[in-house]
Amino acid sequence: MCLAVPGKVVEIFEENGLKMGHVDYAGAISRACLEYVPEIKIGDYTVVHAGFALSILDEEEAAKSFETWRELQAAAAREGVDLFGRPLGDFEDRD
Amino acid sequence: MSLQVKPENFGCPLPAADEDTVQLAHGGGSRLAAELIEQTMVPAFGDPVLSRLEDQAVLEAQLDPGERLAFTTDSFVVDPLFFPGGSIGELAINGTINDLAMGGARPLYLSVALIIEEGLPLATLHRVVAALGAAAQAAGVRVVTGDTKVVGRGSCDKIFINTSGIGVVPAGVTLSAANLQPGDRIIISGTMADHGMAIMSCRQGLSFAQPLTSDTAALHQLTEVILTVAAKPAGQALRAMRDPTRGGVAAVLTELARASRVGVMISEETLPVAGPVKGACEILGIDPLFVANEGKLLAVVAPEAAEEVLRAMRNHPLGRQAAIIGEVTAANSGLVALRTALGPERVIDLPSGELLPRIC
Amino acid sequence: MLKHLDEYRDPALARQLLAEIAAVTTRPWVIMEICGGHTHAIIRHGLDLLLPPQLELVHGPGCPVCVTPVALIDKALALARRPEVIFTSFGDMLRVPGSCESLAQIRAQGGDVRPVYSPLEAVNLAARNPVRQVVFFAVGFETTAPGNAMAVQQAARLGLDNFSLLVSHVLVPPAVGALLASPGNRIQAFLAPGHVCTVEGLQDYEAMAARHRVPMVPAGFEPVDILAAILLLVRQLEAGRARVENEYRRSVRPQGNPAARQAVAQVFQVCDRTWRGLGEIPASGLRLRPEFAAFDAECKFALGEIRAEESPLCISGAILRGERKPPGCPAFGKECTPAHPLGATMVSSEGACAAYMLAKR
Predict the structure, then answer these.
(1) What is the pTM for the complete model shown?
(2) Which of residues 53 through 112 in chain C touch A, CB cutoff 8 A?
């Protein structure tokens, strides 16, 4: 359910009394209703579902997640093997 | 309520001559029809055979030994008629040229038949006809015969176009969907899904930072390059060519796999998709593999010729972003599989109907 | 490059997460991904083929195409057949068969059925066509409800009397509760729906995790998100823990989206709802509040009693609960195919039965 794709707010305007915006997805621009993200500003990334922005993406949290995952990678890389004990880069053979 | 008598209400009940829209009378037998053909259609194509206005085009044709005729027909309906990068006019000319070219044919002659809905603004008709003429001229292919019909309002959607084409297939060229052999490489001439997403974006109210344009193009010069190069190393290195229009790359590859009783394996990471097209596909939940192209081709080439064909395609303006996207396999007969970026392979299931934006 | 999307498809990072999942998995576990969006991503990227064989993923009921009951689709068809009606719907629902037809077939017969991307488009259509009745098929979960609530509020603000919703909204937590309470339940952990939680927050999920002792992890929809979430679930399962861990922190806040929740509460109220394949689940849906009855297509149009029975052959309920597998169904591939589906799990191309049909082909 609930396909929603993150895009960058590039314009904010009012239409029929609603706070609306243009959202950029790698060059594709779509309209979205911004009523549910009242504090949003131009440049913020937002998740849009069926034409409605539902959240402002938290860049700090995103960076933190990657930090955790990169640590995981770094730990494995230090050992020089993956978690099956095989040399790194051997993964294509698995399937 | 009193009846007001005004002098301007009296008059001869002649049909009002609407100067701005297509009338049923434009369809045939009337002064309007003759005007339409002589003042609009004939000048747009500027062809001596068409200008004779005979019931048929009588054509000179001399075939060398081994050469054969290719003959194809296609009908074009599109909403909107005009879209970024083109119109139904370019589609109708380029589409039929491409159908000839995919068989290795050199396109020679086209027919153009219009079915027009009563009430279509004449200005729109003129734009469509101008686009048809310009596309034929740009491609260097002659429009030698044609027809126009007008149908009552509601009997068609604005304008439908049928084009047929005749071309010559050089001696020794026998391309067929049934020719594929395991190990053959699949080459695409450029980015996927540009045309379909340009059209769908018009309908879905999407816009683009840099206008997204349809890729409509006549591919016969590119196919000539491919034929020349592929003939060099091993004779018949070129197995088949197809233009992935409706149903996209996935539908064409499935047809090829079924016709040749082989499998096709494509690799997700090699599939060329322009950034904004990818963005639009993500928003609407649509897979670019299923989306129409109007100026791209898929060529299936023997492995030993693949690199050279690819190089030659990239040297042509219509093949700059050509890429090898997969290969023919003995396994998975009749199916197309995709190797995802993470490694696993999944069979591509063709959508059961029209592509629609989804929320789920 | 799509920021906040492409970096979550990094194959190297995904492989590392897969390796970590394999390393921490010591026993068989059954995990349900509730949301159809997760199912779609899992199949699209082939994640199910990369997980250790001990991990079984069960596709959940989180897809409006799958769970909208036949009777409601028949109501949609009845409305779409009316000459004064412009019937609008998300594209997803157009091909879903009711008792004997689909919206696409009604359109082919002359019905005015139009796919829309946003419910506000349907409101605009009503404003532009004052002599027609515009009905919007309001399907979906908690994620879609705020948009549909806004459409109703906007139609009210614009004073439109020719706009209405055919409401089939459903709620995730009651359905998950029903799955967990069923005697044959095998599900041990849940990949929770990231966009539902973006709207609703984590409270309900924390309550469920505690009450049923199951780990729950709201996840984003890209491979790295899904794998990271599965890793969190497996770690909890292996350690005997059961709580909510939020993988999708960049979008999901504990309290959800207050503005969206408030709009939904103003326009909708909780009601009982029948789910295709699962039957009636108490308090598992939303309907319009009485003060918005003028925008309720079921009140506005005399639709009469439409009762459609599900096929007695179909075992999709047991399949949705993870109790049985599609090939075990006597109708599978015989009476029931993707072209002529008998039940929920064959309707959507990502339904378990449809997926098995494709693999078998």
Answers:
(1) 0.89
(2) 62-64, 90
